[in-house]
Amino acid sequence: MPLEGKLVILREERDEDVPIFQALRNNLETQAWPKTLPPDYTLGMYMRRHERDFSLDRRDGRFAIEWKENGACIGHIGYSDLVPRWSASIGITIHQDYWGTGAAHDSVETLLKFLFEELGLRVVRLWTNSGNPAAVKVAQKSGFRISARGREAVFRKGALYDSLVMDLLREEYYERHPELTDGLPPL
Questions:
Q1: Domain span at residue 100?
Q2: What domain count does the chain have?
Q3: What is the pTM of this model?
């Protein structure tokens, strides 16, 4: 089931998307976490990841991000560590050609609507670092707040940065979206 935003469609991953995902993973600008370096993911490695077994017990979900204007696959977004009706973590990678277009924000907002409205989550988290101000800005624009900081925990591009945990509570999400009605009772 694709999820439709204003600028993007979050859809199932397809075989033809795998080379794009591999390139994003091996690009030092789009790869957020240097612990995966050196960037040596082969197409075969990424294809095996893509071809994982299907399970009805889904604790994670991955979507390709399709730019509505031209139908191009421009990145991927997903959730993981799902605790049903409670929490999940999200992550996103966008091709550099689409930075500054609103694609990241629209993708995050589209996924958040699904997580809060359909999965009934109470909190959504993400991890980034202080050396990635664009990611922090997109998260804050969607209502995320820094909830934990690991000082000088990330070494990237020859410098130390803080590891940041950011989260968004259900109540905060619905305060930001008065057009939506929270159908779950408060705790």
A1: 3-176
A2: 1
A3: 0.90
